[in-house]
Amino acid sequence: MSTKATPEPVPLILAPKDVQELIRSKDSSSIRILDATWFMPNVQRDARKEFEQGPRIPNSSFWDVDKVATQKGEKDEKGNELNPLGLSHMMPTPKVFANAAGQHGITPDTHVIVYDTHGVFSSPRTAFTFHAFGHRAISILNGGLPAWIKNDFEVENGPPHQITPTNYPTPSLESTLIRSYDEMVANARMGARGQTVLDARPNGRFEGTAPEPRPGLSSGHIPNSTSLPATSLLDTNSISSDKSFTTLKNQTDLWRSISDTVGGMDELDKLRQASSAGESAVTNTCGSGMTAAILWLGLYQLGIQSSIYDESWTGYASRKESVIDKE
Question: Residue 236 pairs with which residues in a beta bridge?
């Protein structure tokens, strides 16, 4: 039976002090904190191992974005391949999501707070996943673990504590939040009449002048898409001479960065108006569907609903290697 999670009015972005206050003021069973750290494929680091060693936020658990995902070989009820290219961290099926949420002790009423060790990088993808399955009681710790530590809040090390599983009912995926390859091709053919498509990768990869981090993958971009590097929505905060972390920009700076990209405040207002009925007004893409969620987060903060092309450039270029648009 398909059951939709109960929405709750919680902020999508929380400062470390706000999370600390929630932990102190609420019953611990009503909050679950997830570490959703993920590293680029060319970075030799193990997110799970680092979580298990610590430091980490007390009583948190590790949400593995590559395991809580649709794997190659999985099929839908009609026998169609759900991930024929075998891409990483593709949106999980409702059953996989529900099982993972239950294993993490989450119920539809749980306020889930997600963070990563970069600051803001991979945590928005997990927040988007919960959001896409109707779980609105989801927040991102702005600045992640580094900001938490910088505020001198408690951390723990060593083996994580055991979690008591729950029974999370199978939800429904809000399918309009996920775009397919065929939809992206059709949208590109519409030219200026198509939906706005924003690409979160660095501009060099978008333009085709810098290589992709995935071996053998061409650089370039989807026709009629626009470059909006995820880094343009983030502030960099120094910890030391060689260490830093990211936080989401304030609303004024988000307005500026996004409006400059889409053609000014009037165009931005049009996107807001198009979102007023709850419809997606923008599609976000990146290399693999990870940093596209940073764009989703920034747009959401401005009242703009958006979707993600889950396969992103990796899927698009793999399916259509001959199309490398360098306009």
Answer: 246
